[in-house]
Recover the amino acids of this structure.
């Protein structure tokens, strides 16, 4: 009676087959798992309920079980549910011919349909993450990292198998005018239109990628420089003839193109890219909307004009305090959300005409010329001074401690993470300003963290001892697995906005956000959704359990002093 009771209440379906393959006994769990009354199966061939593609496999396993007493085998199969759907089951079969009571093969069926569905979702997520790590999310083209991999492989091949290749560097002329006149959505649309036009103009054997905010790269296969130049001239002309229309404004769009031929004498990848970019720079210097073949003295020209210009411009901006701090609210979600005022600190540059310049314009140059540590330190010193002098009129540490519900997220560059003196600098700033470390959250992008994993982990651990918090920004943009998170004790994951903005219409983006959210919960890390641009997205991420939201549906960026003066 005891064993009968166990079988009756077992959640796994137990099937006993006679030698002719008909069901002698089946447990009540059949009704729960597959929706059939047990009487529907008794005396029936079990194979009539098996998926046609699995019948051959099941026959093979049953044959092995009948021929070998006391054998135990495990495999997977699909059975039809009473409502018509196919359910995936894990099957363990055992030969019990020696048993005087059973005299047959016993099958234990465990429902793994949900597990298989989860595995399929994770495979889709991993495939999308792999794709995302190699492609530009806006245009769908290869990104710079993937393009550089193709170039490097081509350079290596050219050493043993010399073939003609030409690298073309395209840059949209005066792209900033579109952004300033019409906004960043217009700029994004222009980039997509140019990308589509170029992609339709190059051969399938050519490699096309987006390299930077407004520049693209083309690797022309089986082309000499003499053959490539007319092709690029036609492409340049085709772009010029297309008019970009946004609302009530129309623009003539032009590109400058630099060309360089690959050869066995090309020293390395960096030299090749520098040559192509230098040729493009010369095309712009000579009046834009033109092509230029690389010449050896182009590099020197760029160094004399471009590098000196940027170095001088950014250093002068630091000296004259022409950087500006903005903030954007990060709102907690859910009924039980803590009352926390959470803000990300954003950086802008005021140009000579008093206009604000987006970081997308100058951050690349600042990174190239190793100015980011100085800029990061300017942000930290300026923010701490604003908190000290404006948030609390009297810089009393005890009074500041009462404001711990309000904290600010500061972005750190890869150069700052690798700066051995950063921790010392922060300790001094915390001490002299009186700002509690609990009011500060540092943000590091995922790609920077992975590239500097040891340094990033050390920095996080040291500053968390003081009470600082950490967020991993753009999470999912270059990720191949979640494993490295075990070495990064962060407090928040900021889910890459490119997943969030399409979450309503893209089922894979939805699955990816769900997967990130589930793993974050297991690891006790809170999540922040970027690019929350409308109410529909806000409701979707709230349903998924995301902890915080940031984007235009929450608040637009505003000057930071406007925030701190409200207290």
């Amino acid at each position: 009676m005891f064993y009968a009771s166990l079988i009756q209440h077992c959640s796994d379906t137990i099937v006993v087959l006679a030698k002719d393959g008909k069901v002698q006994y089946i447990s009540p769990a059949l009704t729960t798992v597959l929706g059939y009354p047990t009487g529907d199966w008794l005396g029936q061939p079990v194979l009539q309920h098996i998926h046609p593609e699995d019948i051959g496999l099941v026959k093979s396993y049953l044959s092995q079980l009948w021929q070998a007493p006391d054998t135990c085998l495990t495999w997977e199969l699909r059975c039809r549910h009473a409502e018509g759907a196919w359910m995936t089951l894990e099957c363990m079969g055992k030969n019990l011919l020696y048993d005087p009571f059973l005299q047959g093969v016993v099958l234990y069926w465990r429902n793994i349909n949900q597990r298989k569905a989860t595995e399929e979702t994770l495979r889709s997520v991993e495939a999308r993450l792999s794709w995302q790590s190699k492609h530009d999310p806006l245009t769908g083209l290869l990104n710079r990292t993937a393009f550089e991999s193709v170039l490097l492989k081509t350079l290596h091949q050219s050493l043993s198998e010399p073939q003609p290749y030409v690298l073309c560097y395209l840059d949209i002329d005066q792209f900033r005018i579109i952004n300033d006149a019409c906004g960043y959505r217009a700029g994004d649309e222009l980039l997509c239109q140019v990308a589509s036009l170029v992609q339709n103009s190059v051969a399938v054997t050519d490699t096309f990628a987006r390299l930077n905010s407004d520049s693209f790269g083309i690797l022309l296969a089986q082309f000499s420089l003499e053959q490539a130049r007319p092709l690029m001239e036609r492409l340049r002309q085709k772009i010029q003839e297309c008019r970009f229309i946004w609302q009530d404004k129309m623009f003539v769009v032009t590109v400058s193109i630099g060309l360089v031929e690959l050869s066995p004498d090309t020293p390395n990848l960096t030299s090749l890219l520098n040559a192509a970019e230098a040729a493009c720079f010369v095309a712009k210097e000579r009046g834009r909307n033109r092509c230029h073949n690389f010449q050896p003295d182009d590099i020197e020209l760029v160094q004399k004009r471009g590098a000196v210009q940027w170095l001088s411009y950014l250093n002068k901006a630091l000296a004259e305090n022409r950087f500006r701090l903005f903030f954007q609210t990060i709102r907690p979600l859910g009924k039980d959300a803590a009352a926390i005022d959470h803000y990300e600190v954003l950086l802008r540059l005021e140009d000579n005409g008093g206009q604000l310049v987006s970081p997308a314009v100058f951050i690349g140059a600042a990174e190239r010329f190793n100015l980011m540590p100085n800029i990061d330190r300017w942000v930290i010193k300026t923010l701490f001074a604003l908190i000290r002098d404006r948030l609390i009129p009297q810089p009393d540490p005890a009074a500041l401690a009462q404001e711990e519900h309000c904290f600010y997220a500061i972005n750190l560059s890869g150069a700052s993470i690798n700066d051995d003196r950063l921790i010392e600098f922060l300790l001094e700033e915390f001490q002299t300003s009186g700002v509690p470390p609990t009011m500060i959250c540092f943000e590091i992008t995922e790609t920077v963290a992975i590239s500097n994993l040891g340094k990033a982990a050390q920095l996080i651990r040291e500053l968390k001892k003081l009470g600082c918090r950490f967020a991993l920004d753009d999470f999912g943009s270059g990720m191949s697995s979640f494993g490295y998170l075990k070495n990064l004790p962060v407090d928040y994951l900021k889910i890459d906005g490119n997943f969030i903005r399409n979450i309503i219409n893209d089922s894979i983006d939805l699955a990816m956000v769900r997967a990130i959210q589930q793993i974050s919960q297991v690891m006790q890390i809170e999540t922040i959704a970027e690019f929350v641009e409308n109410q529909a997205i806000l409701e979707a991420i709230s349903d998924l359990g995301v902890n915080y939201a940031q984007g235009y549906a929450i608040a637009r960026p505003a000057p930071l002093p406007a925030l701190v003066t409200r207290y």
In short: Residues 16 and 142 are 56 Å apart (CA to CA). The two ends are 74 Å apart (CA to CA).
